[in-house]
Amino acid sequence: MSRAPAATLWLMPGWSYGPDMWQPLCAGLAATGWSLRLRCPDPGYFRWRSLSPPDAAFLPEELSAVGGSAQEPAAGGLRLAVGHSLGGLEWLRQAAEQEGGGTRWDGLVLVNGFVRFSAATDWPEGVPARVVERMHRRVCASEAEAQAVLASFRQRCGGNPAASLPGEPQWTRLAAGLETLRHGDGRIAAHQWPGPVWLLASRDDVIVPPALTCASAAAFPAATVLWREHGGHVLPLSAPAFCVAALRQILDSLNAMLSSGGPIPEKGTMPGLYRDGVG
Fold first, then answer.
1. What pLDDT sits at residue 33?
2. Residue 50: burial class (beta carbons within 10 Å; 0-12, 13-18, 19+)
3. Using CB atoms within 10 A as the burial measure, which of 1, 23, 192, 225 is most buried?
């Protein structure tokens, strides 16, 4: 009986979310036929009241420690970086800091992601900077204003507005995350990314509109978008089965590609999978 292929997935949450956002995926990923290690860095947006992982593979980590752990590959396995929203930009930042260029990962998946969030003269597809600046001012103004910003944003993401927060908000970390949304720019790192990239996106995402998704995909040498008509800005929560199926296909394709020693596929040509279109 052959052993299941092995992989380590690093799952980075986006702004105003924590490692718990990946919990709906964990059970599904366990049934993919892969031997998986799931690493879930914590950006520190909340002080946790409790966290009940569905299995021992769900391992929250401090963001400050992820650099060391992410350089520890699964023995004989693939290494896949998955980032939701701002979490994807964090992976690009870490890749840009690698000595000698390149990356420690075999592939990158941006879920509701982007390479730059705020608009600039040479990035008209971005969100107007004033939107993020206004959010930042309100988060720094008072706790009441900050709570209102957090509630409004999470509702606009399309998740369950009645869902309780996982812990006490850490406003300093949340404000720092907004600074990154305002000024962070991963376009150079994207252009230099040496491996395949996938973007999982929703056409009704009001936080990262389709035009921003397409512009972000075009920033990579080889990136493919899998679209979903509905799902908002929180596909890991609103469409976990869609995300699990996509990740399984990505892992299977990467495994086949790397096992054969073949070249990185051209943009949009992953075999039988990730062409631009409706998923």
1. 85
2. exposed
3. 225
